[in-house]
Design a protein that fits this description.
seven-stranded mixed β-sheet, single chain, 737 residues, five-stranded antiparallel β-sheet
Length: 737
């Protein structure tokens, strides 16, 4: 699979300007003072006048161009399981959240003047369906609304009567319960500096080099249904923000909405990635051997006889019983095991390479003690021949190669009978032969004698075929000439056998002979039986042998094919049957061996709509399954826990610590203790500060006195879920980098 380039991203607390938006006045005056006494010695008639100059710093205030929004998550009109996600917006103008002043005094640095607010259905009177509806009004109606509606306390700008803005009216209860305090707003915004090549993440945003302002909501979309997100201006509302009380008689608080989008939270309509990954490896929690590809044997009887023990041993080794009819005609059963085995397959004394066979009988294994056949390798040989015969290009190539070899051998044999011709190079051009005869000694006398001799009657001569009893072709010179012919005619045969060695074209029921070996929502690990692969390739390689000549010349063709093949033999692999397969066609699976030495992935194939096959070139010690990266978004992980990240400066900054908050070891500590309910529903609004605040508790878990806005954002970056499979150990769930 393709590897994305490295992402270099830096988070900062804020991007503060020396002066916020507004009107500023410079005053300049000259005063002449006494050097010794310091008194003003200017007189009014001669004093220079004071000079005043005003200028305006303009910034977004009541309207925002949609192009200023770089990305947002969830996507507009998306539907999925976003219960653990804090929606966020990324702004192209990095300074935008801080270029106006909310005039707060609760935090030492300036809090953003805009906030990202999340509303559910039936929470906004003018948008009860959470469809993103707003009311377009003149700015004057925002600043001076009707009685009972609370607007921002701002002086009307010049030309406010003709300026339009999008507004929402928030009921007092929703405003008090949902909006963050001014101190909390400081932690819901940060600056992101990105330094990667331009890249597009799966289901996420385009990560482009630059600086961006980022704002997150303080609310999770916990309840299924439709949601609308508003980027709202809170300038002029600093006196109304929690924990301040709204004036008595307030019917609504009018906010200016600069940008908005909608999405749907549907937990049942999307996949629970972490839950499905954990379910795949659940059988290995009690016994890692339960993840092996084999038919689960029934419970062993307390007193099993020899026959029952023999059958159980076969099942544990990956065999399944199949129907079999021997040449004697009766219907019985035999054992079959495919190339994917749960144990290391023993060496089998199969026929050596270079000894072709016309049938699969040579690969049958008979157990006289139990009177049962093992048809595994015979089935592989027959399958290899069937796949080869079904490929027109391969059949054409191997038939042509055998024919060319036979013709070449017959030609060399005929030449060998004539001492004169045997001395010539059969690969040389005819003109070369003629020139050699012309310059030979005695050619003139021989030519004159031929002209004077009487003509003989015409006779049809047939080139004799190769006589296998004559050993002349075993000479090194002729062997080299035949090998050249074989090399010239292999064509696509090596590539075909390379693909066949990686099980291309092998039907699924040969890999998994019983469906119960790979049930739905399961993963099975296996090793590769090299003898089975050898039998499969032998079946394909034995195609087209019809005569004794083909048999004698076959080693030459096998040598040519072997030299042209790529030595890529699989050693192990895994099979996954899950709904994750169609949902994530390219999710990341990383295998390592020894000290983080990567194991090469030789093949990844979708054998069905929900079945994935992966082959490795070695048996790994560790396999990591990671959900696909979905851009940069914020929230909590599976089980309502935060996967903690390293905050210490250095190369490990931002790396997962393999720890979770709240700690799973403390069942009494749950994440909902750091949330508060809104409008009587499930607790879904973050409580960031205070005795039950998330920030102090998270800082304590990280052994720090306090967290900054950028550190808090880093901890909330939603880590990909990672399922680890370790050698001789039970599966482990962690957060991926």
């Amino acid at each position: 699979m393709a590897v994305q380039p490295e992402l270099e991203m830096t988070l900062y607390n804020s991007l503060l300007t020396a002066a916020t938006a507004g009107t500023y006045t410079f005053k300049a005056s000259h005063v002449l003072k006494d050097r010794e006494g310091g008194s003003d010695i200017d007189t009014d008639p001669h004093r220079l006048p004071v000079v005043e100059e005003s200028f305006v710093i303009k910034a977004v205030e009541f309207a925002l161009d949609p192009s200023a929004v770089h990305a947002h998550y969830p996507a507009a009109n998306a539907s999925g399981n976003y219960r653990r996600v804090l929606p966020h917006v990324t702004l192209n103008r990095a300074i935008l959240p801080w270029e106006r002043d909310i005039k707060g005094k609760e935090v030492p640095s300036r809090a953003p003047w805009i906030a990202l607010l999340l509303f559910r259905e039936d929470e906004l009177p003018d948008d009860s369906a959470a469809g993103g509806l707003t009311v377009t009004r003149p700015v004057t109606e925002l600043l001076e609304p009707e009685p009972g509606v609370l607007g921002p306390d701002l002086p009307p700008p010049k030309g406010a009567e003709s300026m339009m803005c999008r507004t929402i009216d928030v009921p007092p209860r929703n405003f008090t319960e949902i909006l963050p305090s001014e101190a909390e707003m400081h932690y819901l915004a940060h600056l992101r500096e990105v330094r990667p090549p331009h890249q597009l993440r799966d289901d996420g945003e385009v990560l482009t080099e630059g600086e961006y302002g980022v704002l997150t909501t303080n609310r999770f979309p916990r309840t299924p249904g439709s949601y609308v997100v508003h980027l709202a201006s809170l300038e002029g509302h600093q006196a109304h923000l929690p924990p301040n009380d709204l004036p008595v008689g307030t019917l609504a608080v009018r906010l200016c909405s600069l940008f908005s989008w909608t999405f749907t939270c549907s937990p049942t309509g999307s996949l629970d990635a972490a839950g499905l990954l954990q379910n795949l490896v659940a059988p290995g929690n009690d016994d890692p051997e339960d993840l092996a590809l084999r038919l689960a044997p029934p419970q062993q009887p307390v007193q099993a006889d020899d026959t029952q023990q023999y059958a159980l041993r076969r099942l544990r080794r990956g065999y399944v019983p199949v129907s079999y009819r021997p040449m004697t005609g009766e219907l019985t059963f035999a054992w079959y095991r495919g190339p994917c085995t749960p144990v290391t397959a023993p060496e089998v004394p199969l026929a050596p390479e270079g000894s072709p066979h016309p049938t699969a009988d040579h690969a049958l294994i008979y157990e006289p003690e139990h009177g049962v056949f093992d048809v595994s390798y015979a089935s592989a040989w027959t399958l290899g021949r069937s796949i080869a015969l079904a490929d027109p290009e391969y059949v054409t190539d191997i038939t042509r190669a055998r024919r060319e070899l036979a013709n070449r051998a017959a030609t060399l044999k005929a030449l060998a009978r004539d001492p004169y011709r045997a001395a010539l190079d059969p690969d040389a051009l005819p003109a070369h032969h003629a020139f050699t005869e012309l310059v030979a000694n005695g050619f003139a006398a021989t030519f004159l004698h031929a002209l004077e001799a009487p003509q003989l009657p015409a006779r049809t001569r047939r080139t004799p075929r190769l006589d296998p009893q004559q050993p002349s072709l075993s000479e090194p010179r002729y062997q080299a000439l035949l090998q050249v012919t074989a090399d010239r005619n292999t064509h696509a045969m090596p590539a075909f056998l390379d693909r066949l060695a990686l099980l291309h074209g092998v039907p699924f029921n040969y890999l998994v002979p019983d469906p119960r070996m790979l049930p739905a929502e399961s993963m099975r690990l296996f090793r590769i039986d090299p003898a089975w692969i050898q039998a499969l390739l032998a079946g394909a390689g034995d195609t087209g042998i019809h005569t004794t000549h083909d048999l004698l010349l076959d080693p030459l063709l096998r040598t040519s094919v072997a030299r042209a093949r790529a030595p890529r033999a699989p050693a192990a692999g895994l099979l996954i049957s899950s709904a994750l397969v169609p949902a994530w066609p390219e999710f990341e699976i990383v295998a390592t061996r020894g000290k983080d030495r990567p194991v090469e992935e030789l093949r990844r194939a979708h054998l069905g709509a929900d079945v994935l096959l992966i082959l490795f070139d070695a048996v790994p010690d560790q396999v990591s399954l990671r959900e696909p990266g979905q851009g940069i978004h914020f929230g909590i992980g599976h089980g309502d826990r935060i996967s903690l990240r390293d905050l210490d400066p250095g190369p490990g900054l931002g790396a997962p610590l393999r720890e979770q908050f709240p700690a799973p070891a403390d069942p009494d500590t749950i994440f909902t203790r750091y949330t508060r309910p809104a409008t009587g529903r499930d607790p879904d609004v973050l409580q960031l500060l205070g005795t039950r605040g998330l920030l102090p508790a998270l800082a304590q878990a990280l052994d720090r006195r306090e967290l900054t806005a950028s550190q808090f954002a880093l901890e909330l970056v939603n880590a990909r879920f990672e399922q680890l499979l370790l050698a001789d150990d039970t599966p482990r769930s962690v957060a991926a980098p």
